[in-house]
Amino acid sequence: MRPETRERVLAAMAELGYSPNHAARALRVGSFGVIGVIAHQLNRTGESRTIEAVVEAAGREQYSISLVDVETPSTADVSAAVHRLTHQSIDGLMIIRAEDGTPPTLALPPGLPVVVSDSRFVGHHPVVSTDHRGGARLAVEHLLVLGHRTVHHLAGPADSGSSRVRAEAWRHALRAAGREVPPVLRGDWSPESGYAVGRKVAGDPDVTAVFAANDEMAVGLMAAFADAGVAVPGDVSVVGFDDVALAGFLRPALTTVRQDFTVIGLNLVDLLVRQIRGEGSLDDEHLLVPAQLVIRSSTASPAPHRRP
């Protein structure tokens, strides 16, 4: 329509308090313009930064987001969230992390476009995921090259898929190098859990290098070392995972594995929108986003008094 006509229509809409009827729009054009997103623990770096990128990319494609933050990553909670979203008129579904869910156990409506940020769904739905194995391997190899006899691992929760993958890659990297695999140190992603572990191992002379499964636990670990008089990296080298915004401003600045959450979010939206627009089945698509080691000042060769 002509610009002046459009302005008169918009003015009338504002005066009458009119808002578009999305159900009617869907009947006319076959789309609600809404993407459903299921996530867990939005306070976590990976989830929050991925969703931030998803919202931005979806907006450019003229889609809004309907977000459900499930209480637990259990199959029951994720399935309930799927049921809730599919009754809210969505065009497609994005699952940031299913954790306990697997293709046989997670019931998804047939015909609904779906994309998942979880590699266990490869071959069942399009997947975008970080190369957790490659990133963990880079962290371990960096510490071994510096001269550390072995690398201790501060892992995330045992029920987390990304935590399990990073721990498996840590073990494999040590075994491939013919090094001892020490017992796993366990946290819950929080800096408090990293601090608690740090207090326990600060006095252990065998601990000269720690790979933490995320930056928050690495920060807690380094705080505990500082309180115990253990120097980083003079006594113990520390590597994190994620590359949070503050990582480069810590003292010492944190060596870490960078996940490109922006690329992950953009690709999740792209794969989902392509399905919504009828490009056919993309179930075999698996985009593995490379992780990058960012070397800063929290790692160094082991001190002579702590060398084996």
From TrEMBL:
UniProt xrefs under SUPFAM superfamilies: lambda repressor-like DNA-binding domains (SSF47413), Periplasmic binding protein-like I (SSF53822)
Start and end residues of each HTH lacI-type domain: 1-29
Keyword tags: DNA-binding, Transcription, Transcription regulation
Position of the signal peptide: none
GO molecular function per UniProt: DNA binding
Descriptive protein name: LacI family DNA-binding transcriptional regulator
